[in-house]
């Protein structure tokens, strides 16, 4: 059974992280590179955004009687199979799971340019993700009532 409260809490967190990530783009790349605090904050926010989405994906996939995703990346394609998001969005967004893995596991090899350049895409794609999840929830609640 879908836990709509859980999904809404995760969506609220994800939205908050997106709001905090937005101001990064007010900085030039040079300013970003020079500011360790900004870099670390950006990296952590990206990690948290992906993890919130993956938590939502995993919950919906499992609760709609599908096999659980094997990893962060596949959670997006599985979410599309469960009709949580479109296949097109899953394709666009699944690369962020790879970025999250680099940030978490290969932190010594982080390319600042890749992280900085990913911010506008993260903002766009995850805002769309939230819209699609919200639409899914509304449709499911309507079916259940």
Fold and architecture overview:
It is built from 7 helices and no strands. It has 145 residues and is an all-alpha fold. It has one domain (4-144): Up-down Bundle (Four Helix Bundle (Hemerythrin (Met), subunit A)). The protein starts with a helix and ends with a helix. The model has no long low-confidence stretch (mean pLDDT 94).
What topology does this entry show?
Blueprint: H1 4-21, H2 29-34, H3 36-63, H4 72-81, H5 87-93, H6 95-105, H7 112-144
Structure characteristics:
mainly alpha; Four Helix Bundle (Hemerythrin (Met), subunit A)
Largest sheet: none
Low-confidence stretches: none
Number of structural units classed as domains:
1
User: What is the CA-atom radius of gyration, in angstroms?
Assistant: 16 Å
Helical/strand content category = mainly alpha
CATH topology: Four Helix Bundle (Hemerythrin (Met), subunit A)
- Let me know the number of strands: 0
CATH class: Mainly Alpha
């Amino acid at each position: 059974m879908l836990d709509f409260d859980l999904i809404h809490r995760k969506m609220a967190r994800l939205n908050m992280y997106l709001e905090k990530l937005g101001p990064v783009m007010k900085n030039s790349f040079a300013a970003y590179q020079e500011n360790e605090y900004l870099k670390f904050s950006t990296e952590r926010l990206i990690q948290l955004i992906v993890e919130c989405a993956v938590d939502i994906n995993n919950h919906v996939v499992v609760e709609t009687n599908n096999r659980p995703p094997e990893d962060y990346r596949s959670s997006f394609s599985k979410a599309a199979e469960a009709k949580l998001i479109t296949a097109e969005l899953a394709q666009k967004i699944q690369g962020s799971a790879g970025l999250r893995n680099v940030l978490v596991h290969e932190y010594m090899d982080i390319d600042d340019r890749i992280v900085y350049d990913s911010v506008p895409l993260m903002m766009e794609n995850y805002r769309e993700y939230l819209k699609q999840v919200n639409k899914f929830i509304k449709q499911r609640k309507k079916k259940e009532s």
